[in-house]
Structures are given as C-alpha cells and as structure tokens.
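Before the break, one more example. Copy the sequence into your notebook; we will annotate it together after we see the structure.
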Amino acid sequence: MKTTLLRIHLVAWGLALLNWISCKSFAFSLHQHLELGVEISVFLSGLALFFYHLKPFKKFSYYFSIYPFIVVVFGIGALTKNLFLFLIVYIFLFPLQNDVEEYRENEFALKLTSDGLMDMCCSYKLVENKFYLFEKVHLQKFYEGEITPFSIENNIYKKELYMRFTNNAGDTLGESVYY
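Here is what the structure looks like once it is written out:
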C-alpha cells in the first residue's frame, strides 16, 4: 500500500510538472478539470503518505509534513478568521486555483485568469478545447475593466477566429486570432 501510494504521488507530481512546463512553454495543457484532479491526487496521496512516514528526522517525513501543515493552518485560520493564516494557505494552494470561465461558445472559451493576490484586474485568455482532454491557449491579453463578450465566430476556411466584445464603457472591441 505504501509503495502504491508513493508511486501514485510521484506519477501525479510528474504529470503536474509536465503539464505546468507544457502550459508555460507551448500554451497547451490538460483540461482544467483534469488538472485539478491531478493536483488533488498529489495533495491527498501526500497527506496519506505523511502517516506512513512518521519517523522523525527523515527526509520523507519533512517533505510529507507539508500536507498536514496546510490542513492545520487552514483549519486554524478558518476558526479564528485570521487573514495572515489564510495568506499562508493561499501561497500553498495557489497552484490549485482554476481560471474562471466567463463565456463559452462551442469548443472555445473566454477565461478570466489570475496570477496571484496582487494581480492586475482583467487578464483574459481565449482557450480552445482539444479532444476533451487538452486546452490550447490562442490569446492572452490584459484589458482594463471587465469585458462582456457577445460573439465568437470560427471561420473554417480562413483558419481565423474573430471575437467581438465590449468593455464596461460600452466600447466595441475586436480581436482576430489566426491559428
């Protein structure tokens, strides 16, 4: 059981690392629900492996003690409503944060992204679902104010995607993406 959990943990860590490298290098990653499942399996297997490695002063016990530490700090922060503890937990749980889907049409989705607590407002990315397992990022831009999309058109013949949307001021903006 211990070796199986360790293998699951290492494979999930490797898959999460490959997904992160692929996302940053090629703008191609796992679908966000699959990505969340991989990250949760890393966390849960790490938490379970902590109880198998309770021997003090061992390298594995130091590594696996991170997982219950997150649970304890989050629990104390929730009970006392302490902002500092929530900030510590946010640092550890930030990789689990998913992008918020603002608009979807067919296989394309416009998502609001976040790069952390001090991130500027309104960074959007246009994502295309591929084979129900992967996502390809076609466009990532920053706009002042939130946008309200009302049309995404996919033209098969020109291999062009035209997206029309407006911002809060009512200005109509357009974006052409070739892929």
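The chain has two domains: 2-95, 99-178. The two ends are 47 Å apart (CA to CA). Try to locate both features in your own notes.
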